[in-house]
Amino acid sequence: MECLMLIWIKDKEIVGDAITETIIFEMACAIYCDLKASGSGGDMGESSINPTTEEFKASCGLFDKFKRRTRIHSVVRHGEASSSDTKAAIDFVKKFEKIVEDESYVEQQVFHCDETVPFWKKMPSRTYTTAEEKIPGHKPMKGQLTLDLCANASGDCKIKPLSVYHSEKPRTFKAHRVNKDMLDAFWRANSKAWVTRYFFFEWVNQVFGPVV
């Protein structure tokens, strides 16, 4: 079974597919079922067989032994190193706490706004490989939507989020006659789906300001 698993992993490397631990577990179970059905299962080891159901059990311990024997390892396919200044962030938290205390602000008056970027088409950032050198990365697909979320510290005032997509009028909007003004988000668009300064000012003046 491990020989077949290794061949499958190398085939995936050639075509450039990402392989996660979950995918390997599922493939191991599938290969075992095929070997069992063909009558060539052989001795799979006591630790990998459930004594009650006599079925193969893909566990973390078994996977760790498989990695040691085959020397496969996890590598990052793409991504960027964090460039944030950790010390400055910690100092800012202390400074901000002092401002809140000195000005006697209550939780309802303290708002936090941050952006997040869901990639629903993005491939896994890590993959298992037999190669010793770094494998080439792949550019993430542009299924990207940037959301600017905002709420106060007490949690009783959540502002309509700013949503930036790469299309002003997606096909779904046209097909279902979606009115952007009726959405639960302040919809804007540009080619890179980025929150620009202009979009943020629009959101502050038209959404955040009136609500607060």
- What does the largest sheet look like? 4 strands, mixed
Indicate the low-confidence ranges by residue numbers. none
- The count of strands amounts to 6
What gross morphology would you assign?
elongated
Determine the N-to-C terminus distance. 62 Å
Count of helices?
Answer: 6
Helix coverage percent: 25-40%
Gyration radius, in Å: 25 Å
The fraction of residues assigned to DSSP E strands is 15-25%
Order of helices and strands: HHHEHEEEEHEH
Derived structural class? alpha+beta
Number of domains: 2
Strand order of the main beta sheet, please?
Answer: 2-4-5-6
On the 0-100 scale, what is the average pLDDT? 80
Could you explain how this protein is built, in words?
The protein has 212 residues and is α+β, with helices and mostly antiparallel strands. The chain has two domains: 2-71, no CATH class; 106-211, no CATH class. The protein is built from six helices and six strands, in the order αααβαββββαβα. The chain has helices spanning 2-15, 21-38, 60-70, 86-102, 171-176, 197-211, and strands spanning 73-76, 111-116, 126-129, 145-152, 158-165, 186-189. Strands 2-4-5-6 form a four-stranded mixed β-sheet. A hairpin with a 5-residue loop joins β4 (145-152) and β5. The longest helix is centred in the N-terminal third of the chain and has 18 residues, at 21-38.
